[in-house]
Design brief:
The structure holds two protein chains of two kinds.
Chain A (H helix, E strand, L loop, with lengths): L14 E12 L2 E12 L3 E6 L5 H9 L6 E6 L8 E4 L11 H15 L16 H5 L15 H14 L4 E5 L7 H14 L4 E5 L12 E6 L2 E4 L6
Parallel strand pairs in A: 3-7, 3-8, 5-6, 6-7
Antiparallel strand pairs in A: 1-2, 1-4, 8-9
Chain B lengths: L7 H23 L3 H20 L7 E6 L7 H14 L4 E5 L7 H8 L3 E4 L5 E3 L6 H23 L27 H7 L6 E6 L20 H10 L4 E7 L6 H18 L12 H16 L19 E2 L9 E6 L4 H23 L1 H7 L2 H7 L5 H31 L7 H26 L3 H18 L12 H8 L3 H12 L6 H29 L1
Parallel strand pairs in B: 1-2, 1-3
Antiparallel strand pairs in B: 3-4, 5-6, 6-8, 7-8
Classes of the chains: A alpha/beta, B alpha/beta.
């Protein structure tokens, strides 16, 4: 298997996000229970675990899409200056609009967030437009999202996230619904952008080996089980 | 480490930018396909057109005058006088029975009578077989009026009856009044705009024995005239409009006074309606009215101030009749046309609610709310502002379309004050409705719940806003307070008045609406925060 070239990855021990005693529950059922976890800039973190183990809730809490019931989810002030792109496990696109409209709107949000200061990321991925071609979705740019297949929807969702030139990419199950060709395209794109950004990705165990990560967390009943750092 | 403070301007730019992006996105979704455009923009116009085509059933009371006695007797003569007086009332049909039937109930049921008057009896009795509460309510209001006429006819039986200044034959032409146009058309069809009006109050609102009140409007105050007429539309049955090419206003005042005198002696409990579409008939009426007026010389002070106290929204038939005095009709008799601005106001208040009520639900179902919340520095206020603005813009577009329908199809012309109406009436009302819809949307969990909430909102607003049934003054405090929470309560009378030519005090209407917007904006913001906690 080809391993990505990560020699250019900057090393930054500065904590970016810290979970301390964080709990998230729905109807008394815990979906997330994290005693202590620190994530740093330029981490490439892979979350693996069975269905319902809390991977998606972890990423949603990290992205700021949900709040936690207790504990502290601390974010470094730098977080607010970064382009945080989140591609949820499903959906995340406006079904009545075309693919091109979705890409433009997603990018527009970040343009306003950083309008006054420009891109704060020291290393932008530089894949705004090319991700469309790299992911093979240029033929569906004028198609409404609701008319897309599940696999194409997944690719567009990832493209929308990359289109915003993120500093931090949070991707939930990037290989879901994809055929071999789509999976290969996603692997290639992630491998290309990973040296330039912080990546938090959740995937099934069988997809894990192909992802360019340097940390792994096994989720088990909402709790992270630490795995040793990965040498890539 | 404390978060560095960002300049206020930068935050404002971000908030507005995010809101603008959401606005563009929501409008894009709304206009993205033909069905959405049809449902949101075209269907309301079609609906409004159909409302104008509606012909509502008039409320007519059937009166049985029982125990009238045999023909030729004094008792029968008195009963006939009562019947004749009743027949002059609009919407009253009278049947006379010589005796009182043994099975009175069967007779009432068979004849579908609503009111029983026993000749020589002290009171009338309401015996309606109708089950419609609105009809029963109207009949309850009609019965005292019938009793007043009966009493007047009995007590004045010895006095000579002076014929009304209207040919009796015209009484049968009431139905054609449906074709009458509204006051707005008067301005267009008349060679010159009318300058004076004398309005005769409804007999129901006039204490027995008191003369009817007549209001005269001076020249060169057409706007005030229309406004005065519009504001007190519930009190008057008809008005006399004086054409400028025939009469000076002071003369008109004298003639109105003469009419007042004549009508006062007549105790006119009868709102005689004219078939003004018949030019000859109307001309005869006008001639008769002029003859009355000509016999009176005005001797009041030259600078007598005009009285504008009570008047009513009026209707004039087309073509514009000739003559100096023209009878006008209350537009209340043309209920569908009166409904048009009310329905337009209802659409203006309901559409933004419906559009925004699904906003957060849809974002949740499509998981796009997660993406929105993940955008750095995406303020809740941006989301609320962007989504409500999209609904308001769509509503303003629909409002303009509705006005065009009213203008083209029904002659409720777009007139001056449109900008004030849009800015101070429609926009605040639509914004309040949209913000309330967003709050409800954040509270609901599914599209089904949002749809149910929209339907309930429609019904409650139409009920407390007086669209289904007019809400009487002095209704329960609960209803009064509830009505204050809905924009329709404020914007509907204003749009209605504007549509019929008046100049509402838009500033007074905008203040409560803007206060409502503020409350609902806070509510929507809090509800969104609560929603995010539930995610």
């Amino acid at each position: 298997m080809n391993r990505p070239d990560v020699t250019a990855i900057p090393v930054s021990p500065a904590p970016l996000v810290r979970f301390t005693g964080v709990q998230k529950h729905y109807s008394r059922r815990f979906t997330l229970h994290i005693d202590d976890l620190t994530l740093c800039r330029y981490d490439r973190l892979l979350l693996i675990g069975a269905n319902g183990s809390g991977k998606s809730s972890f990423l949603r809490a990290l992205a700021g899409a949900i709040t936690v019931n207790s504990g502290q989810l601390w974010r470094d002030p730098e977080w607010a200056t970064l382009r945080i792109a989140y591609a949820p496990q499903s959906g995340g696109l406006y079904g009545e609009l075309t693919v091109a409209d979705n890409l433009a709107i997603r990018r527009s949000f970040y343009r306003w967030s950083h309008a006054a200061e420009g891109s704060s990321g020291s290393l932008s991925v530089g894949m705004g437009e090319s991700c469309v071609e790299r992911l093979g979705i240029q033929s569906v740019l004028r198609t409404r999202v609701r008319a897309l297949s599940g696999g194409l929807h997944r690719l567009v969702s990832l493209a929308a996230a990359l289109h915003s030139e993120p500093d931090v990419l949070i991707v939930d199950e990037p290989f879901g619904d994809l055929d071999d060709r789509g999976m290969e395209a996603v692997r290639a794109v992630l491998s290309e952008v990973v040296p330039k950004l912080t990546l938090f990705v959740a995937a099934m165990p069988m997809d894990a080996p192909s992802l360019p990560v340097n940390r792994r967390l096994q989720m088990l009943d909402g709790r992270p089980v630490y795995e040793p750092a990965v040498s890539i | 480490m404390s978060r560095p403070e960002r300049p206020v301007m930068r935050r404002v730019v971000e908030t507005l930018g995010h809101a603008a992006t959401l606005l563009v996105k929501d409008l894009g979704e709304l206009l993205s396909n033909a069905r959405a455009i049809f449902l949101a923009l075209i269907l309301p116009c079609v609906f409004l057109y159909l409302v104008g085509q509606l012909r509502t059933q008039s409320i007519e009371a059937r009166v049985l005058l029982a125990g009238a006695g045999k023909p030729g007797t004094n008792e029968r003569a008195a009963a006939d006088a009562v019947a004749a007086a009743l027949a002059e009332l609009s919407g009253i049909e009278v049947a006379v029975d010589e005796g009182v039937p043994d099975n009175l109930g069967a007779r009432l049921k068979e004849g579908r009578f609503d009111v029983l008057v026993l000749s020589g009896g002290a009171t009338s009795l309401l015996y309606t077989a109708g089950v419609d509460p609105f009809r029963i309510g109207v009949l309850q209001q009609v019965v005292p009026r019938i009793e007043a006429v009966v009493d007047a006819a009995r007590t004045d039986a010895a006095a000579p009856r002076v014929p009304l200044p209207v040919p009796a034959a015209l009484n049968g032409a009431r139905s054609s009044l449906r074709e009458a146009s509204n006051l707005a058309r008067v301005w267009q069809n008349a060679p010159e705009p009318p300058i004076a009006a004398a309005a005769i109050p409804a007999a129901a609102s006039t204490p027995a024995g008191s003369p009817p009140q007549i209001v005269v409007q001076p020249p060169s105050r057409n706007e005030s005239l229309v406004q005065a007429i519009t504001k007190a539309e519930s009190d008057l049955d008809r008005a006399l409009l004086v054409r400028p090419d025939a009469l000076a206003w002071r003369t008109a005042r004298a003639r109105a006074a003469a009419l007042e005198d004549r009508l006062g002696r007549l105790k006119p409990a009868s709102p005689t309606l004219l078939n003004a579409s018949e030019k000859e008939e109307l001309g005869a009426v006008a001639a008769e009215a002029e003859a009355i007026a000509a016999s009176i010389q005005y001797d009041g002070p030259a600078d007598a101030p005009p009285e504008i106290s009570r008047s009513r929204l009026l209707t004039l038939a087309t073509p514009a009749p000739s003559g100096t005095l023209v009878s006008l009709y209350p537009v209340a008799g043309d209920r569908p046309r009166a409904l048009l601005p009310e329905i337009a106001a209802l659409i203006i208040c309901v559409l933004p609610f419906v559009l925004s009520c699904n906003a957060f639900v849809r974002e949740r179902e499509e998981r796009t709310l997660d993406v929105l919340l993940a955008v750095p520095r995406m303020a809740y206020s941006s989301i609320v502002a962007g989504k409500s603005a999209a609904a308001v813009i769509a509503t303003v577009a629909v409002c303009l379309s509705l006005l065009m329908v009213m203008h083209v199809a029904y002659g409720l012309f777009i007139k001056s004050g449109l900008l004030a109406m849009i800015v101070l009436g429609v926009v605040p009302a639509a914004t309040a409705a949209a913000l309330l819809g967003l709050a409800v949307s954040a509270w609901t969990n599914s599209s089904l719940q949002a749809t149910i909430a929209s339907a309930i909102y429609l019904l409650v607003q139409a009920l407390v806003g007086g669209l289904l049934y007019p809400v009487a003054a002095g209704t329960s405090d609960v209803i009064s307070v509830l009505a204050m929470a809905f924009p329709l309560t404020f914007v509907s009378p204003a749009i209605k008045a504007w549509a019929f030519g008046a100049s509402p005090e838009w500033a007074q209407i905008a203040v409560p609406l803007i206060a409502m917007c503020t409350c609902y904006a806070v509510l929507a913001r809090v509800a969104l925060g609560s929603l995010v906690k539930r995610l």
